[in-house]
Amino acid sequence: MVLAFKRETFRDDYTFRNSPEAVRRFPFPFDADTYMYSVNIEPHVAGRKGSVFEHPIDIDEHYVSEMRDRALVLKNDPLRCQTLPHMDLAGWDLVELLMVSMSEAYPEHFLLERNGNDWHWVNRPLGIDDRFTFGVTSTLPYGPMEYITRQCQGDFCLLDQRDGNLWVDAGMVTTQADWSMDFDLGMNFFEWHAPVPLAHEKGVFERALKFLMQLRQGHPVRRFNWTMSSTPRLDTSPENYHKWGYERALITPENVSERLHLRVELQALWRLPRSNAVVFSIRCYLASMNDIVSVPKWGRRLHRVLRDVHPALAEYKGLTRYRQTAVDFLSKYDDGQETSPGIWPD
Amino acid sequence: MSRSAPIAVVVTAVEHVAQDIKRFSMQRADGQSLPHFSPGSHVTVEMPVPGGHKRNPYSLMGPLDDPHTYQISVLRVLQSRGGSQFMHDAVNVGDQLQISEPFNLFQPESIARRHILIAGGIGITPFMAMTQRFAAATIRFELHYAVRSRSRAAYADVLSAQIGSHVHFYCDDEGDVLDVRKILSGQPLGTHLYVCGPEGMIDAVLNAAREEGWPEEYLHCERFTAAPSGEPFDVRLVRSNLTVHVPANQTVLEAVEQAGVDAPCLCRGGACGQCETAIISHDGALIHNDHYLSDDDKASGEKIMICVSRLAAGTLTLDL
Ligand code: FES
After folding, report:
1. pLDDT for residue A4 is more than 50
2. Could you report the per-residue pLDDT of A212-255, keeping only the tens digit for each?
């Protein structure tokens, strides 16, 4: 499939928009009219054609602009990509995972030629054509993880397994949602990315850890998370709160349809072969309220979900400021009809 | 997702590398490359032994730089359930086997300042890949390799040739004794210790290290506990609504797998904890062979590690 990449911004003038096709493939996260928190992990296997699950690594029309936004974040704050020295091999594992997946899924846009350790990578959308020696970091312009994640949508962390736990020892984090903690190199994965608000319930860590320890190469898993965002800003990191936090208060009945976005994160976990490290990827999808109500089923359902969401959860997800405005807007699109099961448009 | 799809491989070489030890090289039957693996990984080899399939875990020795070949070593064990004898007597070049994808339960700590590897006999196998990786990445390590006699010292020549300055050999029958305390003394802070070999040796090494004040996080072992055979008995699987016969030479895990039930497991050696199963009832004595459950757990009769433990006779009813 040949993608037409858009030129748009995720900051300042916010020219980000979804095409009608992008709306149809948006991973709407609610499969029923009420939302209950659950860990909902499932195998990350190929899904419906054209959907965001069709390929293990999804590239879409926002690719080029998202990569430009990432470069801007890194320019201002190079520490958003960090790698501890012992994660170099895991970084190369990630290079392989992403290059193989991207070139197999989108041969029109990405080309990978391998001859032993002599690799040739062509990224047409970003105008990159590089030859390098696999495993030799000095043959790349950046470290392996930074090199490839500057070319792939989504945040990525590499987790080292030791001492019976997983440690976030490398990361490219430029699009994290506001509910997550500061990205801190070397921290325990569960401290950083606990499935809050259930996180502190007894046994959740142990079960999640046991599950992740048995993650096998070739058998990635995924789960979804969702929140809302008062702009299509990708970089809503806590350290930049002063730059975007006030925008929450700017949602009005007049602009809610355009400005307020449902933000869905597709999180996936892979075991890497050479390093035995685990990749944690967080891919963000945005849809405005206008996008949502263009699919009648989603408009009805999001109205019901937001109307009935537990106040503690709304607080935790930072929805409180604009929830009522959103519910009022969405109520106009809820005629009370039943919705069909599942997430797909009718 | 506990049991992945097996990989069909063809045996491309069988070499007698030491007394009672054979090395098997294998490649994918479809000619594709095999998954890369990290040092410390094992694969499970499925053996179509008459009287019930067996699955034994074997460490991947290497080579780390050839994605087409896996090598494992098998020690012939006489009082075993027949898996190693099958490998020795019935598997030849050109034969097909099914193996699992690699899985690592013995990963060297990435942030260690230095690694001390202690191998006893066939316990050398996981260290073959580890030492390759360490040497290539100039990571500091030393290998102590103890054998009963020179004739059993598999790969001593390769090790001497490739990493000789890091290796110390000990031959029991020549009076060389591996002195754990001496090895441990004066090691820099941040040194990790790994031991693989016979049961008694592992315990002796770990206990000596503990007595020297080494914290648990710095101690690692891989136990090559071959699941013992026993008397035949029956297992009733309540959730699957099945009754499965466990012959003398099969484990509960192998028997339920053969019956088509996918039970979680990783190590098949009673160490990792994945196959812990709740017992609903049992009318014979439990024989716990694992290293995972606490003594209290074992005494309670409520849990069993089905990869190695069994019933003396009768019927075991499991929540599976
Ligand atoms: S599979 Fe590891 S303890 Fe049974």
Report:
1. yes
2. 888 999 999 998 889 999 888 888 877 777 888 888 778 999 99
Tally of residues, chain A: 346
Is residue B265 within 6 Å of ligand 1 at its C-beta?
yes
How does residue A179 score in pLDDT terms, banded at 50, 70 and 90?
Answer: very low
For residue A97, pLDDT over 80 is answered with yes
Q: A218 and chain B: CB distance < 8 Å anywhere?
A: yes
- ipTM higher than threshold 0.90: no
Q: Is residue B78 within 8 angstroms of chain A, CB to CB? A: no
**Those residues with Cβ within 8 angstroms of residue B146's Cβ, 6 or more apart along the chain or in another chain:** B118, B119, B120, B121, B169, B170, B171, B172, B176, B178, B197, B201
Q: Do B101 and A216 touch (CB under 8 A)?
A: yes
pLDDT in tens, B153-194: 999 999 999 999 999 999 999 999 999 999 999 898 899 999
Radius of gyration of chain B (CA): 20
Confidence of residue B224 (pLDDT cuts 50, 70, 90): low
Q: Of A68, A223, A307, A321, which one is the catalytic site residue?
A: A223
> Residue B36: CA atoms inside 13 Å, Cβ hemisphere, count?
17
Pairing of strands A165-172, B242-246: unpaired
Q: What share of chain B is helix, strand, coil (3-state, %, to 5)?
A: 25, 35, 45
- CB nearest to B38's CB, from A84, A216, A276: A276
CB B73, CB B14: distance < 8 Å: no
Q: Is B101's Cβ below 8 Å from some Cβ in A?
A: yes
Instruction: For residue range A113-158, list pLDDT tens digits in order.
Output: 999 999 999 999 999 999 999 999 999 999 999 999 999 999 999 9
> What DSSP element (H or E) covers B47?
strand B41-47
Residue to test with chain B: of A89, A117, A216, A270, most B Cβ within 10 A: A216
Q: What percent of chain A has pLDDT over 70?
A: 92
Residue of A nearest to B68 (CA): A116
* 8 Å CB contact of A273 and B37: yes
Q: Cα torsion at B282, B287, B289, B290 (round to 10°)?
A: 30
Cβ atoms within 10 A of the Cβ of B5, count?
A: 10
Q: Looking at the complex, does the CB of residue A85 fall below 8 Å from at least one CB of chain B?
A: no
For chain A, the structural domain boundaries read 20-331
